[in-house]
Structures are given as C-alpha cells and as structure tokens.
Amino acid sequence: MGNKEAKRRIVLVPVPAQGHVTPMMQLGKALYSNGFSITVVEGHFNQASSSSQHFPGFQFVTIKESLPESEYEKLGPLEFGMKLNRTSEASFKDFIAQLLLQQGNDIACIIYDEFMYFSAAAAKEFNLPSVIFSTTSATNYASRRVLSELNADKFLVDMEDPEMQDQVVESLYPLRYKDLAISGMGPLEQVLEVCRKVANKRSASAVIINTVSCLESSSLSCLDTSVKIGIPMYSIGPLHMTPSPPSSLLEEDRSCIEWLNKQKPRSVIYISLGSIYEMVTKELLEMAWGLCDSNQPFLWVIRHGSESLPEEVSTMVSEREGYIVKWAPQIKVLGHPAVGGFWSHSGWNSILESIAEGVPMICRPFHGEQKLNAMYIESVWRIGFQVEGSKVDRGEVERAVKRLMVDEEGAGMQERALVLKEKLKASVKSGGTSYNAFDELVKYLKTK
Ligand code: UDX
C-alpha cells in the first residue's frame, strides 16, 4: 500500500439511480481494497455520498452543472439521461483538469457507467485511460449492438408480424426480437439513439460487466466472436457477493427481519418492484387481494408506504399474513430462511441477489431490459416464470404465487435456483471465474 503505484486514483462516474449506484459503489470498494484511491463523481440527487459514512477514504465530488431531480421528473429517464450527458461534459472536463493538478497527473483511469458516456470526452482530452462499466447483463450489452443497427420505422412495421416478434435474434439465441429492451422508455427512435450512444465504445480500453460467466456464457462469447468487441472484457459479478458496505439511497426498515424470524422456512413470498416502478391504486388492490387469497405469508415493499394504501387493502393485509415496508434490506431478506420466492420486476441487481440466495422468482417486467432478464429466468435458467400482460388481476396473482410456492413445478424451479446459487458461490471464490477476472482487472488497471 505504501508505494506510488498502489495509491493511484480511479474516478468513478455512476448513474444517479439505485440500480446503478449500488454496483458502482461495490466496484469502488473492491478496487479500494486492492490499493486504489477512489473519487466518486455525482450529480445533485440520488447521491452515492448519502452512504459516505460506510466508505471512509473515498472522495465524493458533485458536478455543478448536473441536472436537478425536478428535470428527471419532467423529462423521464431517457430524455433526462441524454440531457445529463450534454450538460455534464464541460464541467466534468474542468473537474478532471483540477484533479490532475492536485494529483500530480496520477489518475489511473476513469470508470464510467455505460450511460454516463459524456465522461469519455474528458478522458480523451487529457489522454487518460477510460473503462466502461455495464451494470446490467452481458446479454443486454450485446443486444444493444443489435438495436443500434436497427431502423426505427422499418422495425416498427416488422414487429407487427407475430412471426417476427418470435424470431430469434441472430447470434443471441434464445433471445427473440420481442424480448429486446425497447418498451416502456419512450419513442423507439429515441431508445435506439441512446442504444447507439451507449454501444459506442469511444476511446474506452476495456469493459467491466456485473455478470458471471456461468449465467451468460453464450452472450459473453457472442460479444467476443460475433460482436467482436475488440477490447478486454471483465465479468466480475455478482459484485454484491464481494464484501461491501450498504449503499442504499433509502432507509432500510429492518423490522421485517423480526417478522421473518416468526415465519416458517421457505413460506414467505417477497414482493419488490425495484427503485423506479410504482404501482397505481388498481394494481395495488388486485395484488393485495391475490396475495391474501394465496394464503402464503408475504413481505411487500411499497415505496410510498402503507399509509397511502386504500383502507380496504391495509385492513386485509393486517388481518392476513402480510407485512409491508417502504424499503427492505433486500439482500438480507432474500438470504433469510423464511423466504421461498421473489415477485420481482426483474431488475438485474434483484436477479443476481435472488440467484445468489437460491430464491426462485415470479417476473413482472415493466421497462428497459427487464423483459429480456425475465425471459432468461423463465426459459434459460428455468428458475421462475413471467406474468405477462398490461394488467394482472387478483386471480392471476393468486395462481402465480401458488404455482411458485406450493406446486411441484415451483419446487423444480427452486431446486435449479439452488444449483445456480452454488455455481455463483464458486465463481466468486478464489480460483473462480469472477474472482480471476477481478484479479486480471486489478492487474490491468495497475499497468495504466
Ligand atoms: C434499474 C432498472 O429498472 C433495471 O431494469 C436495471 O436492470 C437496473 O437498473 P432498479 O429498478 O432499481 O434498477 O432494480 P434493480 O436492478 O433490481 O435494483 C434495485 C436495488 O435496490 C437492488 O440492489 C435491491 O437490493 C435494492 N432494494 C430494492 C433494496 O435494497 N430494498 C428494497 O426494498 C428494494
């Protein structure tokens, strides 16, 4: 730790959203433990520095020209992301210039979330190495290459044909065109524009992916051979399995662990739809009825809290075997022996966390690459199934919960999830694929 090389600085640029901040902080912690100094550059909201007490030694810096939260609410994720990239470029360059002066040119690398592509301009200007960090799956990363080559008008017409929807995307078997991450984010042309920007490597010299080769070997080899990414790729996930402090942007309600302690082994279905999606009242009602009718105990994350629930739902939940929290310590919940299933929106972090604990899933994907993730759960790993359609009524909720928690079919899914759990454990242990890839990454960064 005492030599010059061991103290070189890495600048991290996360996207201001829970699902991106968490893996970036986990990566930062792992690199810090391997002798690098860490600077985290952030905007004005969803700041990683809200958990700075858990990351002593890290430097946190706010970009002045970054956009406020009100812009996110006004523009939505896609337009906000594009605007953020336009407005942050110049002030990020200024910040890097200052840091270089302070650090005596000792910046080893800028590691930026693939969606924070503005970072590449500063790296180029100051001739610094840059590395892209993809916080979602390798399949998603590879599929963006396909999307970035599509013509929006033609694709929309093609997709009116059900045969085309079910057609497998060449080199990404078994991914079908209908699984691609195009829905729920905005107009297709805009989605494709973002894909083109994100898929462009610019001057990056490597890519880090929060995945593990035993889950996505064919997509990883597609990136290597068909997409010909042409720069080193490091699959170092699941990052949450490496020792790291919490980086939750919301306060975790730990009372649910007490409640779980009173439940029977593998009896509880845990429901969480991540940090972005919120159910409307009608959906909440149908979900509550279905959960109660399933007769399984349930732990339900509702971010706006139980106080905003219709009275009918609150009464029903408190009379039945239900418990509601605003935000749960999710990794602890999934690792609790009482939890037997996870009703999820299929965000990538949630999936990795669930597999790492051998918990099978009911997938209710909403936007972005969640459909693609759900397809992998249902058809590739076979550790869960999708609940599809724009509306899900109480009967479907009840049937889905029973299918996973009670039926023999659910027992098979759980068995396979437990097998994958062991594979993930082996990957992050000394000699495992992710362990070795991280080792290689550290060596690589030390040469920069
Ligand atoms: C976003 C996108 O929606 C998703 O498609 C993409 O894969 C990642 O970025 P998000 O919706 O937040 O992510 O979902 P997810 O990736 O599952 O991340 C949520 C994180 O919040 C997880 O790490 C989970 O452990 C944590 N969480 C969630 C809690 O700590 N407590 C909760 O109550 C709920």
TrEMBL record:
Signal peptide limits: none
Alphabetized InterPro entries for the sequence: Glyco_transf_N, UDP_glucos_trans
Presence of the UniProt keyword Cell inner membrane in the record: no
Residues of the Glycosyltransferase N-terminal domain: 10-240
Taxonomy, superkingdom: Eukaryota
Keywords: Glycosyltransferase, Transferase
Family: Belongs to the UDP-glycosyltransferase family.
Protein name: UDP-glycosyltransferase 76E6-like
Organism whose genome encodes this protein: Camelina sativa (False flax)
